[in-house]
Amino acid sequence: MAYALGADYVEQDLALTKDGRFICVHDIHLEATTNVEEVFPDRKRPDGRWYVADFTLEEVKRLRAHERLPHRFPMGQSKFEVPTFEEAIELVQGLNKTCGRDIGIYPELKEPSWHRQAGLPMEESFLKVVGSTDTRARTPRFLCSVSSRER
Fold first, then answer.
1. 20 to 30 A Cα–Cα from 40, which one of 34, 63, 65, 146?
2. Are strands 144-146 and 104-110 parallel, antiparallel or unpaired?
């Protein structure tokens, strides 16, 4: 949507799966934006949440993604999967090539300190993904890191 509205950058909220893959998801939990409660009902933690870090990428790809705010997109009418960061980069680069624009990516690492404590440090993995992604399109980049635990 941001691309269609003429944004200069498209933000990707990123969390790490159990097998160390970045996925684009609103926060470190899955229940607000996927059907994880239906597909994996017994995998919630004692706090009642389903954490991205408890699932492999293969498991996440079995989920259906949906808009968390019901007024922004028709609910239940489409079948979207949770994209990886690489897929999001590919999409932006493809749109740039097709549309003749130079829109950048603005990845946001969600809760790096939480991931680090869970044994999934994000920073080095992020640099590897960005460094290994085809950047011939010279996609502009900014990085944002959000952690409610680091003050």
1. 146
2. parallel
Q: What letter does residue 19 receive in the DSSP assignment?
A: T
Q: How far apart are CA 85 and CA 21, in angstroms?
A: 8
Identify residue 74 by its one-letter amino acid code: P
- Six token digits for residue 107: 């990845």
Token pair recorded at residue 85:
């960061």
Give the pLDDT of residue 137.
Answer: 47
37, 51 contact by CB (below 8 A): no
Which has the closest alpha carbon to 75: 35, 46, 112, 103? 35
Token pair for 62: 């079995």
Q: Tokens 């609910």 appear where?
A: 75
* pLDDT tens track for 79-96: 789 999 999 999 998 999
| Average of per-residue pLDDT across 102-114 | 91
The pair of three-digit structure tokens given for residue 99, joined into one six-digit string: 């549309």
pLDDT (average), residues 124-149: 69
pLDDT, mean of residues 18-44: 96
